[in-house]
Design a protein that fits this description.
With 1482 residues, the protein is mainly beta.
Length: 1482
């Protein structure tokens, strides 16, 4: 074939190619739009690739009219014209499919600049392209044989290639300029910026977005969609043209989050994130949850934090729709500034994140978690974890969520945990968990609802209910976001809807991978992959077609797309074939599916089918895939088998532990539901509303003492299993558990090879009596410790143990474990390091076994046991100490002064609601031993329903004590004790126990029965009470008992006592009814006393008043005074007990009253000598005297030296009425001394003393300082030429008074620029040359004897401006005064000179700058010349010389100096005289 023929064929081939391009110029082309990859080389490469691809055709040989054989290529396959409208299944247009132009930026820019006018250019280009194609078409029709050289052929080939490239680039540019081809993915012109604001401010996020069609904008907070319409008070969203904004009003700490704006159109999605941090107004900045915390040089380095979680939340019960809060108080010790531990919340070991359902708050001291609108998904084990640099501390409790109240009785509960899986373009699988409550009948199925995000319309996805907890939803619109919910159905009706699922986007997973971004809501930029070279080809066959799910209702197919599927994407046709036939039937005939998933419904149950899939695109339908194996329509997932029979064990008074064997035959287990029923009711109640996978569950919320049985059922997606067999019935009550650890392991005594240990009983005995203790030991050497070794193999029954065969001078540690019927506790906290060596101490050890009874609002009874080691002598008493639980170690105080010989004590005077701790110390003759382990804390609070022991006397005179308890449980007993010890002598008492009531009868009441009777109810929370039966009480009870048998004489009042003048004591009472035969005995300590001596007695039978007087009280008078009356058979007795502190106080007061009476018989002091400070700061010593006569001597002395007449101090004495005054005046150290005043005359004398030394002098000075400090005036500011002076004035200033100045609450240190001092009564602070740094708050702190009196002045704002302006003015004036021009000397006032003489005067001048100098005569300026010679030298000396003066030169002269600061005149008078005239005159 000649070269000409080849060229002609090539031209024909090019012509045919251009024709195909024109036919398909509207075809969609996708290229990568990233400008970073758009280079000229890539365009060239793409062009070459296209050319190369389109040239692959079938070659055929034909002959021309001239008989020449010509090779022709087969035509391209015909394709349907591609539509550019994207439609959903309902044939509704939802967007466009637009090619994206891809080219070099420089080429695009050059092409754009060349286009000056669209119309003109389009016409020119059209003509040029038409002529080109017409010319080439004509050439293609002629077959010419031309002979060309190889060089010419190569050049023409290169020109053709260049022309081809230019044409294709121009075609693509024209496509981009087409208005229908301008659509492109969203892109940000301006992104929102992160900001940091204070609480209470309003913030706005802005962004500018481009894209076509116009993108839909959505704002998210921490991946949660912001609904501005619902929360209009918080958010405002605006969109104007391409400007979009989100306004957050009144920001608070919870607005700290990541805010994302997302833009979506049919071409893709783009999002951008901005972080908002809201700071609180506090000293230390607190970073938001998204802000990294930098603590600088780690101030907590080397600190071991101890974390304690208090006020813990308990097992909680909520109901759907309610709001539930959990919280704990956290104490982290020590407290480090700017360091805050991290608080994290978990549900079932999964960290919780902030959402619209979950809100957490952590203040550093209180951690709270709020669950908004509870759903059953919120049920689970909640854990609070506090993380510090030293580790972490956790606390957990279970939260149960019950079903909400239903409107229709018998409907099932709402499903839960709705999730979406396997999302594709038009398909998604929705799964859920079945509810625990099926209702009055079994669940028939479930309805699945969907709602497009941004709307409120819910559409039901399935017409008939599905039995499986899994459903494939089809018919979704590609690119749209959806949420789903599920409802259960039984014969009674439809349940409430479940909580909505997370948002899911209908999108091809492969597109999602190509976008390289996460699922909706999306973040990041969209990136398009390169167009593959298979555009225009029929797609290949799908691979790996499998049946993923098969149920009675539907079958789900899944497959993988073909490797070569074209950039335009593929769709699928599904075909089915009944087993045993060869007939394939297309399932989706009307519309191909877009997703590689498909759900087939309406299949015949029990039949077998096989399936295959075909791909299709605009080029045609591809080959079918390999067929699946035969699948029989039916449930592939069977129901689980029934779990094993539950085993129930007791836990607490309201909970039990249920364990069971797992289901043996189960696939894809979802979990188990546990149910219980009170025996006899046949009503089954779910224990958990969220399935649990473990085979052990703690059921809470049960009724104490109720008898219950339990059952368990398993579930998977197919449904519920049969319920397990019923458990054995169990009574709900607290179980016996292992006791708590013993506490306070201490050393009681030590010898060379022996050590005696003591410890305290566990706080909690686990519900069973402690049966014994085990002691372990280990050796300590430095910081190394050995392993623990057992000391006793047999349990100890006491809380002390003597360890023998130890090594002397070896250091040991010990731990103790307690044992009850449930087992052995953990080891106690190891004791301190204890060295085995001989003790030299002789005091007793620490008491042990501290416990408490009878806790009330204001009292508690503390009991203890004797120490294991008595010391060298027996223990003879105990001391009880107490303090508030939160008080520091110095807060311990003794409850009593004298040693208590008993091993118990009732502590009164407590404050209700306050927690206290106690300790006890033992005493022997050698001293007081160390304190016991601390008992408590004990909260002073009377338990609800507490009753006290009461004493009754029945009609028969029987005395008894009664105690009632309404909270007794099975096994509870009443245990009585006397003086808190077991009652051994039962002959004196008869105890009768009835249900909830006990009674103790005194068989023969006597003094032997005196004591404290207490009653404890076992198996309760420490319910106890007591009654102290004293002798008086016994007598009273006996009297009451006697009154029931014998009449008594009534008294109007009991015997009373009063103290009279001279210290005389009067005992008296008044009898209400008696006869004249009534006999009276005066009894003291059971001994009858008679009239006479110090006793005076009187019984006035007219009034019934009985009196007995005692002139004075002596030691022997301590006891009981009794009036005994006998009136026939009736008897009456009244007594007054005067013993102990009351007697000693009365005796002391009686003696004082008698002494005072004697003192007041003569001159005496009504008010003793004391001091006062006047407002003028004068110190006065004053006293008030009484019963003073004219002859009474008043003597003053200082330091035992009498102040006599003529002394200077005598002038300071003054007596006005009965007030004596010594005016010290302004006190100095010389005035210190002991001042005394004596009063005496023949009637007696009295003396008063005031010690004005040491503490007395200090007290006077402190009072003086107080008066001075309170007299200080408010701070004022004074401007001077040197700076500012802040000053305050006091009435008087003492040299010892401390005065301090502060600037901005910081002490001011003295310097050359800032000085403070006192001038007279003025306290001042001078600030020389003030600057802006001197602005602020100034405080003067004047010592007032205690803390100080502060006066504050804010030197800022207008005060600063005025003061600083005045300072500048004065400074300028001072500078002007210093530097102004002036005459400083040298000129006389008057100059008399003889005519004809020469006058020379020189004046000294000064000024800065150097002044201007001039001379005047009679106010007329003189000019230097022959007559007047004026000079000014060195800037200091101005001189005037007048040669041969004459009378005309007489006059008033002035030296005038002037500069910019002022002018001054040095005036002098010149008088010229002629001697001859004077002589002639004479």
């Amino acid at each position: 074939m000649s070269a000409s023929v080849q060229v002609s064929q090539m031209k024909r081939h090019l012509h045919h190619q251009r024709k195909e391009q024109r036919q398909h110029k509207e075809k969609e082309q996708h290229y990568e739009s990233s400008s970073q990859l758009s280079t000229k080389s890539s365009v060239s490469k793409q062009t070459f690739s296209t050319y190369k691809t389109t040239s692959h055709r079938v070659k055929t040989s034909v002959k021309t009219e001239k008989g020449q054989e010509v090779v022709r290529l087969s035509p391209l396959p015909k394709r349907a014209k591609r539509t550019y409208l994207a439609m959903d299944l309902d044939k509704e247009v939802i967007g466009y499919v637009i090619p994206v132009f891809r080219a070099n930026h420089e080429e695009v820019r050059s092409l754009m600049e060349a286009r000056e006018e669209d119309v003109t250019e389009e016409g020119i280009n059209y003509v040029a392209m038409r002529n080109l194609f017409v010319r080439e078409a004509r050439e293609a029709l002629e077959v010419r044989v031309e002979k060309k050289t190889r060089t010419t052929h190569i050049r023409e080939s290169a020109e053709r290639l260049e022309l081809n490239k230019t044409l294709e680039e121009w075609t693509e540019f024209r496509k981009k300029m087409n208005p229908d081809s301008l659509m492109h993915a969203p892109e940000f012109i301006g992104r929102p910026r992160g900001q940091t604001v204070w609480e209470g401010q309003t913030i706005t996020l802005h962004c500018t977005m481009a894209g076509w069609p116009r993108p839909r904008i959505a704002w998210y907070k921490n991946n949660v969609l912001i609904d501005a319409k619902t929360h209009s008070e918080k958010y405002t969203v605006e969109s104007n043209y391409n400007m979009h904004s989100l306004q957050i009003k009144n920001c608070d700490f919870y607005d700290t989050a990541q805010y994302r704006v997302s833009a979506l159109n049919v071409k893709g999605e783009m999002s951008s994130v901005a972080t908002i941090v809201v700071k609180r107004f506090q000293d230390g900045e607190e970073g938001g949850p998204l802000e990294s915390k930098d603590y600088g040089p780690a101030p907590e380095h080397g600190i071991i934090f101890q974390t304690t979680i208090l006020d813990k939340f308990e097992v909680a019960f909520g109901r759907e729709g309610e709001t539930l809060s959990l919280g704990c108080t956290v104490i982290v010790y020590p407290t480090v500034k700017k360091y805050q531990p991290e608080a994290m919340w978990y549900r079932d070991s999964v960290p919780l994140k902030e959402s619209k359902w979950v809100h957490s708050n952590w203040s550093g001291q209180r951690a709270t978690l709020t669950l908004v609108h509870l759903n059953k998904e919120d049920e689970g084990m909640y854990t609070l974890r506090i993380n510090t640099t030293s580790g972490y501390e956790t606390f957990s409790a279970y939260v149960f969520v019950r079903d909400a109240e239903v409107e229709v009785k018998g409907v099932p509960g709402a499903p839960l945990d709705v999730c979406c899986h396997d999302a594709n373009k038009d398909y998604v699988v929705v799964t859920w968990k079945q509810p625990a409550v099926e209702g009055s009948s079994t669940i028939l199925g479930y309805y699945v609802d969907r709602c497009e995000v941004g709307t409120h319309h819910w559409a039901q996805c399935n017409d008939s209910p599905v039995k499986y907890a899994r459903f494939p939803v089809t018919g979704l619109a590609e690119g749209r976001s959806y949420v789903f919910r599920v409802r259960a159905l039984n014969k009674a009706g439809v349940s409430r809807s479940s909580r909505v699922s997370e948002t899911v986007v209908a999108m091809d997973p492969y597109d999602r991978a190509r976008l390289r971004g996460p699922s909706a809501p999306w973040t990041g930029m969209i990136k398009f992959t390169e167009e593959d070279h298979t555009v225009g080809e029929i797609p290949g066959e799908p691979v790996d077609v499998v049946v993923t799910e098969a149920t009675k209702s539907y079958v789900v197919l899944a497959w993988k797309p073909p490797v070569q599927r074209g950039h335009e994407g593929v769709m699928y046709f599904i075909e089915k074939c009944i087993s045993g036939t060869d007939t394939w039937q297309r399932v989706n005939t009307s519309m191909p599916v877009k997703s590689p998933r498909f759900a087939l419904f309406d299949l015949a149950e029990g039949k077998s089918y096989s399936f295959r899939v075909r791909c299709c695109n605009s080029a045609g339908v591809g080959e079918a895939s390999e067929a699946t194996t035969d699948i029989t329509v039916g449930d592939m997932l069977d129901l689980p088998s029934a779990p094993g029979t539950p085993v129930v064990t007791r836990n607490t008074s309201t909970s039990v532990v249920v364990s069971w064997a797992a289901s043996k035959e189960v696939k894809h287990l979802v979990g188990y539901y546990v149910e219980y029923s009170v025996v006899g009711t046949d009503v089954w109640i779910p224990c958990n509303n969220k399935p649990v996978k473990q085979t052990r569950f703690v059921c809470h919320g049960l009724t104490t003492e109720a008898t219950c049985e339990f059952r368990v059922k398993a579930l998977n997606a197919a449904g519920y299993s049969l319920s397990s067999s019923h458990s054995e019935s169990v009574v709900v009550r607290a179980a016996v558990s292992v006791p708590a650890q013993p506490t306070a392991v201490t050393l009681l005594e030590a010898h060379k090879d022996t050590m005696v240990l003591g410890w305290s009983e566990p706080v909690n005995d686990g519900g069973g009596a402690i049966r014994g203790y085990f002691v372990d030991y280990r050796t300590v050497k430095g910081k190394a410790v050995s392993q623990w070794h057992e000391l006793n193999l047999q349990a100890l029954t006491t809380t002390s143990y003597k360890v023998e065969n130890l090594k002397e001078n070896v250091v040991y540690q010990f731990q103790v474990r307690a044992m009850n019927m449930a087992g052995v506790s953990k080891g106690s906290v190891p004791s301190a390091d204890l060295e085995c060596k001989e003790w030299t101490l002789t005091v007793p050890g620490a008491p042990v076994g501290l416990h408490f009874l009878e806790v009330r609002d204001s009292s508690v009874v503390v009991l203890w046991e004797a120490p294991a080691f008595d010391g060298r002598t027996p223990v003879n008493g105990y001391y009880l100490d107490m303090k508030e639980a939160q008080a520091v170690e110095k807060g311990w105080k003794a409850v009593h002064e004298k040693a208590n010989k008993s091993k118990y004590m009732k502590v009164s005077g407590l404050e209700a609601g306050t927690a206290y701790v106690f300790r006890v110390r033992a005493q022997n003759l050698a001293g007081v031993g160390r304190p016991s382990a601390v008992l408590g804390p004990v909260l002073a609070e009377t338990p609800p329903g507490t009753k006290e022991v009461s004493v009754e006397v029945d009609d028969d005179g029987v005395i008894s004590m009664v105690f009632e308890c309404s909270e007794m449980s099975e096994g509870s007993e009443f245990v009585w004790s006397k003086d808190y010890q077991a009652i051994t002598d039962t002959s004196r008492l008869t105890i009768i126990n009835e249900k909830g009531r006990t009674r103790v009868i005194f068989n023969n009441p006597s003094l032997e029965d005196l004591g404290i009777f207490s009653c404890v109810v076992t198996n309760t929370d420490g319910i106890s009470s007591s009654f102290a039966l004293a002798e008086e009480d016994l007598k009273r009870l006996l009297d009451i008992s006697h009154e029931h048998k014998f009449p008594v004489i009534p008294f109007k009042n009991e015997m009373a006592m009063e103290l009279q003048e001279k210290g005389r004591v009067r005992f008296w009472t008044q009898v209400e009814k008696f006869t004249k035969d009534c006999q009276l005995d005066y009894v003291f300590n059971d001994v009858i006393i008679n009239q006479g001596g110090k006793y005076t007695m009187n019984f006035d039978k007219s009034t019934g008043i009985i009196e007995m007087f005692m002139d004075s009280l002596e030691v022997t008078d301590e006891g009981t005074f009794t009036f005994k009356l006998v009136d026939g058979k009736a008897k009456g007795t009244t007594s007054y007990v005067l013993i102990g502190e009351e007697f000693r106080a009365l005796q002391k007061k009686s003696q004082f009253e008698r002494a005072e009476w004697l003192r007041k018989q003569g001159p005496h002091f009504i008010e003793y000598l004391d001091f006062t400070v006047t407002p003028k700061c004068d110190v006065l010593l004053k006293c008030t005297v009484g019963n003073v006569k004219a002859e009474t001597e008043i003597i003053w002395s200082k330091n035992s030296i009498e102040i006599c007449a003529g002394d200077e101090a005598m002038k300071k004495l003054e007596k006005k009425d009965s007030v004596l005054t010594f005016n010290i005046g302004k006190i100095t150290k010389e005035d210190a001394g002991i001042y005394e005043v004596f009063l005496k005359d023949k009637r007696g004398q009295d003396m008063s003393r005031f010690d004005l030394t040491n503490e007395g002098y200090k007290a006077v000075m402190n009072e003086l300082f107080r008066v001075i400090a309170n007299s200080s005036t408010q701070i004022e500011v004074l401007s001077t030429e040197h700076g500012l002076v802040l000053h305050s004035t006091v009435t008087y200033y003492h040299e010892d008074q401390r005065v301090g100045w502060l600037h901005k609450d910081a002490k001011i240190s003295a310097s050359e620029r800032v000085k403070s001092g006192v001038t007279g009564e003025q306290l001042w602070l001078k600030i020389n040359e003030p600057t802006e740094r001197d602005k602020g708050k100034y405080t003067i702190d004047v010592f007032d004897g205690k803390d100080g009196v502060k006066r504050v002045f804010d030197l800022s704002g207008r005060a600063w401006e005025e003061a600083f302006e005045e300072f500048q003015r004065l400074k300028a004036a001072a500078i002007a005064e210093r530097n102004r021009a002036r005459v400083i000397g040298g000129l006389p006032d008057v100059v008399a000179i003889q005519e004809g003489k020469s006058l020379n005067l020189t004046g000294n001048v000064w000024g800065e700058p150097t002044p201007e100098v001039s001379w005047t005569k009679n106010e007329r300026e003189l000019a230097s010349g022959d007559r007047y010679l004026l000079k000014f030298e060195h800037g200091k000396f101005a001189s005037i010389t007048i040669n041969a003066v004459s009378r005309a030169d007489s006059g008033k002269y002035a030296l005038v100096v002037k500069n910019k600061y002022g002018t001054e005149y040095g005036v002098f008078t010149v008088s010229v005289y002629n001697p001859e005239d004077e002589e002639g005159g004479k």
